[in-house]
Amino acid sequence: MDIVTRAVMGAALAAAVASFRPGGQQSASPLPDPLAGSEREAVGLLSQSGREVSMARRRLAAGIGAAAGLLPDADALIQSGGDALLVLDYHRHFTHALAFVPVGALLAALLLWPLLRRRIGFGALYAFSFAGYLPHPLLDACTSYGTHLWLPFSEHREAWNLIAVVDPLFTLLLAVPLFLCLRRPDTTALRWGLMLGLAYFGFSFFQQQRAQTAVEALAYSRGHQFAQLSVKPSMANLVLWRSMYVHDGRVQVDAFHLGSRLRHYPGESATLLDAAGARRVAAGDARRLHDIERFRAFSDGFIVQSQADPGFVGDARYAMQPTAIAPIWGLEWRGAAAATDFVSRHDFPPAMRREFFAMLLGRDISTSQ
Hints:
About 45% of the residues lie in helices and about 15% in strands. It is an alpha+beta fold. The chain folds into two domains: about 5-20 and about 35-185, no CATH class; about 205-369, no CATH class. A hairpin with a 2-residue loop joins strand 2 (about 240-245) and strand 3.
């Protein structure tokens, strides 16, 4: 997911750990009658001081959790000027494995220890780092990119397709309660925020099942024997979903508005780049052919060659428009002997935006032109 959500989630869980008190909450019963006057005032000052210490600890924990929650993406630094795909090979790789979480949390704690050793013990620092690091790979697995959760036991990449990489509503469900938690000592907002976050994923799973049922029925109505069927939410919402499936060597995409009533928006179809097509694009260049096959593995086989630009091979899983096959990233070669470049294409012109918002609202897209 996006960097803000990862930091907020890490901060929220670490703050929740800091707020935990074994044995339940302290009693709220009134002070005994014998305490009066200056004695009662002294106890009140001690109580206020305790709350201030607790809030300071909670805020410190949130900062530690936010920092630890960003550390797994340090794998993006694994790059090479001579190999444009190296960053794809290692992004969401071993640093995102659940088995690596204890090690990653330890690294985060060691990095923060010189700055915080006079404010917190190492045990507490590690606990907050662990709470901040853990949700990062799990959140990433909820997207469609693919995350190596099970290394070193399995190379399988988890992509649960429950949420877009950027979803402001989900982020706000966590950020607002976190803000209240760091401002008010007795609030239960953070607890409610975390429960709402889980409920959001529950609703996403419900929507995902609706979309999958709809696209299966659609494929059958077309007479398609589908394979590799996938549904995922479009950017920043759980209402407009993009579906993909493979039939007879072609990838078919469609969009579905999943409001109180379901609405289908027909999408595009394109021929997948097979092994013979890859050899034709490589034109005898063994390194180029190897890069295409690496990119095929990264894209789960959903690679297409641009008809307008034959020197571009893209990942059909992602497009700015849920009904389109116009990959937002892919491989490009600028000449017969040119090295492989990994390029991004995020054009989103006004006409496309109008059509997207029309589908998001469940309207007829012909009126949005």
